[in-house]
Design goal:
By secondary structure, the protein is mostly helical. The chain contains 7 helices and no strands. Residues 126-160 are annotated as: Disordered.
């Protein structure tokens, strides 16, 4: 289990470095799918990227491979968003090296994780902020790890 981090701490995380070290099999992959995905969701959302374009890009990565997706003229609409996802895709290629279907699938799953985090944050925000006075906080719900998202390699093959 990774230590809980605040949004402010996550904003300073080097997402590209986490992708490079998280692509090969190993313990660093957990951080790629947790802290780095959270940090990436904040970065993407700050640039106005929503979950659907990231999910679409994940599909492109699956069908075209990372090298093909890197050649897309505008993988996400907008220069800043395109630059952001190109850095992530380049890091994934650097971390795994070569052409590899498993690498493409892993990175597509990571993009989907980022998209889900954006969608969840938007859903919670639309219902109102969760704070000390909210029923969720008062009941203690959500304060344990039973709702944690399974990490790749934790017996969740085929699930995203």
């Amino acid at each position: 289990m990774t230590a809980r981090r605040t949004d402010e701490m996550l904003r300073g995380l080097d997402v590209e470095a986490a992708i490079v070290v998280g692509m090969p099999e190993g313990e660093a992959r957990r951080a790629m799918f947790s802290d780095a995905a959270l940090a990436a969701s904040h970065l993407a959302e700050a640039l106005g990227a929503g979950p659907y374009p990231l999910e679409f890009l994940a599909g492109c990565v699956r069908s075209m491979g990372l090298p093909g997706a890197l050649e897309l003229p505008e993988p996400l609409i907008g220069a800043e968003r395109t630059e952001l996802v190109r850095r992530w895709m380049s890091a994934a290629v650097q971390g795994a090296g070569g052409t590899d279907i498993a690498r493409d699938e892993l990175f597509a799953r990571w993009l989907e994780r980022v998209a889900v985090l954006i969608a969840l944050r938007r859903q919670v925000a639309s219902r109102g902020a969760v704070g000390p006075e909210s029923p969720v906080e008062q009941s203690g719900a959500g304060n344990d790890d039973s709702t944690a998202i399974a990490e790749p390699g934790d017996g969740d093959r085929g699930r995203t």
